[in-house]
Write a structure and sequence with these properties.
192 residues, two-stranded antiparallel sheet, 5% strand
């Protein structure tokens, strides 16, 4: 293999990422260099991911939400994130098209990975999202979404499903796309 080291980004992965994401070769290479410094093993563990995620939400408990986000990004289910999974996740959550973001959001809510979402899963993710909201901001929420359960009930109502029914990905995307409030409820943006 000549001068190639194990820490070099393979051409195959680089080409894949250029096709899948909007990032340039230079950006991907810079991300990879930083990734290697932060994660010398070439993988991010759930605990490391929780630490990274908590930096974005210093006034909140981001641990459970980070665990769900990690699960949704770990596409090969090996319990770690490699560089490719990391960059695809970064692309989907920060720069991807709305439909791609909603596909990712569906995978986040599909806790058991069975291809459907039920109200229990919606409640679990809403509980994790709620923990991201600082206490002082929770008191400013509307009365029908000021607890995780109320937030989950409100979100579930937009899909017009009974509590014991389930939701397919297309229904989820359509329901969220057609309702601005549903879009707001599936994530948390700090109050400015």
């Amino acid at each position: 293999m000549g001068n190639t080291t194990s820490s070099a980004l393979s051409k195959e992965i680089l080409e894949d990422l250029k096709l899948i994401t909007i990032f340039s070769e230079t950006e991907i290479s810079q991300w990879y260099e930083n990734f290697q410094k932060q994660c010398p093993t070439g993988r991010i563990t759930p605990e490391e991911f929780e630490q990274i995620y908590s930096r974005f939400f210093p006034d909140s408990d981001a641990k459970s939400y980070a665990r769900h986000v990690f699960r949704s990004f770990d596409t090969n289910d090996d319990g770690t994130l490699d560089f490719k999974e990391y960059i695809i996740a970064l692309h989907m959550t920060s720069t991807g098209k709305t439909t791609r973001k909603l596909e990712w959001a569906f995978s986040l809510f599909d806790v058991d990975k069975n291809g459907y979402i039920n109200k229990t899963e919606v409640t679990e993710i809403c509980q994790a999202i709620f923990k991201l909201i600082p206490k002082e901001d929770q008191s400013k929420l509307p009365g029908d979404e000021n607890t995780p359960e109320k937030r989950a009930n409100k979100l579930w109502s937009y899909f017009e499903k009974k509590d014991n029914e389930r939701l397919a990905e297309g229904e989820f995307i359509q329901g969220v796309t057609e309702n601005e409030n549903a879009m707001r409820l599936i994530h948390y943006e700090p109050i400015k």
